[in-house]
Each structure stands twice: as C-alpha cells, then as structure tokens.
Amino acid sequence: MHTWIFDLDNTLHDASPHIFPHISRSMTAYLQTHLRLDPEAASTLRLTYWRRYGATLLGLMRHHGTDPRHFLWHTHQFPELERMLRREPYLHGVLRRLPGRKIIFSNSPVHYARAVVRLLGIDRYFDDVFSIEHTKFRPKPDAYGFRRLLRRHRLEPRRCVMVDDTAENLRTAKRLGMRTVWVTRSKRVPGFVDVRIGSLLELPRRLNLLT
C-alpha cells in the first residue's frame, strides 16, 4: 500500500488568485522594512533571490543573515485566509478514495500550512504536515528535506507517491525512488513523471498506473 505525499499550495487548493500575490506583497514589504529598500528595489531583490535560489528566503539567509522563522512568520499572515482560499472541488472524496497513509510536504511555514489544512477540513486524512521548518529551511526540491521526511516516518521511497504541481520537486522524488504524479495542464511530460493529471479528481482513476 502506498504512502501519499502531497504538496499543499496549488496541489490541494488553488493559491494563485489570492494567496500567492499576498505572500509576494508581504515579502516585498518585509525587504523594504528590514533591508531599508524602496518598493522597486525590494521587489527586484525578492525576484532575484527567488530566481537564483528557488526561494527568496534562501537568498536572504545567505546574503543578509535573515532569521528564517521571523521572515516566515511575518510574510505568512492572513487575516482573511478563509475568504482567500480556493478549494479543489470534491477534494474530500478524492482523499477518501486513496488507500494508504497521507502526508503533506510543503515549503510553507507550519502555522500557515496547518491553518490551510484546518480550513479545508482535510486534517483528518493526513498523518502529518511536514513544513519548511522540518527541512531545516532547505525547501523542495532540495533532497535533504525529502530524506528527513522519509526518516521521520520510516518510509521506503519505492512505496511512496509524490503528488505536486512543481516538476522540479518531482524530479527529486523520482531520483529517490518514489512514484510521481504531476498536477498540471501542461501537455509535455518529462520522463521523471509517472502520471500527469489536470485535476486531483483524476487521481483515483489513475491508481492502476502507480502500481
């Protein structure tokens, strides 16, 4: 029986319309305040670090000695999180139909990830929410966090299925021996992806491809 490892944002819910723009604005404001930059310079630096390191946080830690917990706390505040959430239709039914353990593996901080899971009403389906703090702030696609998750739950990679909207995260999962499911509308599928789905609704019907 598989252990299902799910990404959170843009996999179990749609973060693009409201949540991701809010985080981007919050990060820019953080850089303005703590690095004393004007809005344009702060936005440029945020994007530069994101493109170079895959996460703005990594650039701030490397070049400015930023405290990651302080940064993540202040950039992931959502007074109206429930209103901003865009739920995947029939998500509960999909999760109920998947046999095996389920874990969330997210690059977001634990306070935000747990709040989203609670508001989606899906906490009962998951054994753990494995957040960026658990990776010692080495986010996906870094293999370090994957290995920590596997050790924490005593998992064999060959018995795990990684479900994610980001291809590079799946590349790492595949290298470690996991099966991979890419949630995307892309028609071009790289070799490290075992199953491509346009929506989580398709997942229970594709189980035969993951055995």
TrEMBL record:
Ranges annotated as spanning the membrane: none
Coiled-coil region list: none
Domain of life of the organism encoding this protein: Bacteria
Pfam family for this entry, one: Hydrolase
Protein name: Pyrimidine 5'-nucleotidase
Organism ancestry: Bacteria, Pseudomonadati, Pseudomonadota, Hydrogenophilia, Hydrogenophilia incertae sedis
